[in-house]
Amino acid sequence: MLRLVQELHLRGYQRLRISPGMSPSGMHWRCAIAPVTNILRRHGALIANHAAPAAQYSSSDPNFFEWPDTTHASPSHLAELFIERFPSLLDAGRGSDWLYAGWYVEMLHLTYPDALPIAYADWELPSDQLATVGSERRIRIPMPPPGEG
Questions:
Q1: Which of 42, 76, 92, 103 has a CA between 20 and 30 Å from the CA of residue 147?
Q2: How far apart are the C-alpha atoms of 7 and 9, rounded to whole Å?
Q3: Could you tell me whether strands 116-118 and 55-58 are parallel, antiparallel, or unpaired per DSSP bridges?
Q4: Which pTM does this prediction carry?
Q5: DSSP letter string over 25-72?
Q6: Res 92 pLDDT > 90
């Protein structure tokens, strides 16, 4: 999922952002992909309007976005499908956002190979950085740049 967004950034959609977190049970990692216009100004990884369009993923489903043809898809192939199947999100996400794209590459570096970033959960999270799950390492991910929502 995270590499899919990196692939979209490489293809000119740097205004797409992630909003990652945990399900209420704490069992599943979730990640929404939304344009920067639907990400909070006060927190660069939280959705501003949950009624606005966003692509929703949950690790509870072995398929990406509940698409049955994606179980073993590569990030590049997922990007092709995402571009084909989410045209309105792509229109809103087209353009440069080098500050976020740079932050994103650093986040991927910090979390590789065993951690996932989270911005929300049903437990207390730090307010000055993104938390992670999946790793025993203590990882400090700086907050992403503010959104526009």
A1: 76
A2: 5
A3: unpaired
A4: 0.96
A5: TSS-EEEEEEEGGGB-SS-TTSBS-TTS--EEEETTSSSGGG-TT-TT
A6: yes
